[in-house]
Design a protein that fits this description.
It is a single chain. This protein is mainly alpha-helical. It is about 75% helix and about 5% strand. The protein contains ten helices and five strands, in the order ββααβαααββααααα. It has helices at about 20-50, 60-85, 95-125, 130-135, 140-165, 180-185, 195-225, 230-260, 265-290, 295-315; strands at about 5, 10-15, 90-95, 170, 175. A three-stranded mixed β-sheet has the order 3-2-5. It has a two-stranded antiparallel sheet with strand order 1-4.
Length: about 325
């Protein structure tokens, strides 16, 4: 089998979502609408979290960063997927593929870290309400967010530096609609054992490390909720963490199932990938707005304030 390196292989061919041009056009419209709604929903969460004084709390500080990360994550893969849906040749350059892998890896790690940080925040709020403000100081919240970004980017950097040394065979077809690190291993003529070991270590760090923090946080949370004597109190306490628990289930459920499956380009694999890379960034703001009275009230106030500004601007015009 002939081999080559990055100087001889300039691009990879991506798996098309459908061979039917009419279905591709429908998918383009569908994913474009999803992407625009994702941008709108997450930008609104960021806006109200920063402008509404009632949301200047640690929970909404973390939520605004989660929304920014979802914007970032969705923008890494969806624009290229939309471009390929309208193109005859579904290709991506080697450099573009490596960049996409780096940012997919980094943003996935950031989301895992942020979700675990938010679980700790809910633990502090429910299990130690009197000490909550003292524990979750602004300095600590900023450090936790920056720590999430630094750890995720360093982890992605190590993995991508190892991937840059891979040589690729003549077969250039990635059995996926986007570039992901496991998809490159089957295309490489190099020994990928070091890459696979590093990837496994990264998955263990993010998946198991963050899952354990979330698990122990919610074990204590549920124990505290069950010890509350009144039904109203239990319901109020559970409502403060139900949105986060839903977001955790969606992200980890689809991501773990996706990476437990071999890279084959099967319909189920593509559905799971679309779930966590396209759908999850869309539904996260819906989960936190539709199930949260404070966010809904803040959204109404922000929209009313914006409409009043428009009316005032219209009256002031000559």
């Amino acid at each position: 089998m002939a081999t080559g390196n990055h100087s001889s292989i300039k691009e990879f061919i991506l798996l098309r979502l459908s061979a039917d041009t009419h279905i591709q056009a429908l998918l383009f419209v569908l994913f474009l609408m999803i992407y625009l709604l994702t941008l709108l929903g997450n930008l609104l969460i960021i806006l109200v979290s920063h402008t509404d004084s009632t949301l200047h709390t640690p929970m909404y500080f973390f939520l605004s960063h989660l929304s920014f990360q979802d914007l970032f994550y969705s923008s890494v893969t969806v624009p290229k997927m939309l471009e390929n849906l309208l193109s005859q040749r579904k290709v991506i350059s080697v450099e573009g593929c490596m960049a996409q892998i780096f940012f997919v890896f980094a943003t996935t790690g950031i989301e895992a870290c942020l979700l675990s940080v938010m679980a700790y925040d809910r633990y502090a709020a429910i299990c130690h309400p009197l000490l909550y403000r003292q524990v979750m100081r602004k300095q600590l919240c900023v450090r936790l967010v920056w720590g999430s970004w630094v750890v995720a980017f360093l982890d992605a950097l190590i993995n991508i530096l190892l991937a840059l040394d891979l040589d690729f065979c003549e077969v250039q077809t990635i059995r996926h609609y986007a570039c992901e690190l496991p998809s490159l291993f089957s295309l490489s003529c190099s020994d990928v054992s070091t890459n696979a070991a590093m990837l496994l270590s990264s998955v263990l760090l993010h998946a198991i490390g963050t899952c354990l923090l979330i698990f122990f946080s919610y074990t204590r949370i549920f124990s505290t909720i069950l010890s509350i004597s009144s039904t109203t109190g239990r319901s109020k306490a559970f409502s403060t963490c139900s949105s986060h628990l839903t977001a955790v289930s969606l992200f980890y459920g689809s991501a773990i199932l996706r990476y437990l499956m071999p890279t084959s380009g099967s319909p189920l694999e593509l559905i799971l990938s679309i779930q966590y890379s396209v759908i999850t960034p869309l539904v996260n703001p819906l989960i936190y707005s539709l199930r949260n009275k404070e966010v809904k009230a803040a959204l109404r106030r922000t929209i009313l304030k914006y409409l009043q500004c428009l009316r005032q601007h219209g009256r002031d015009r000559p």
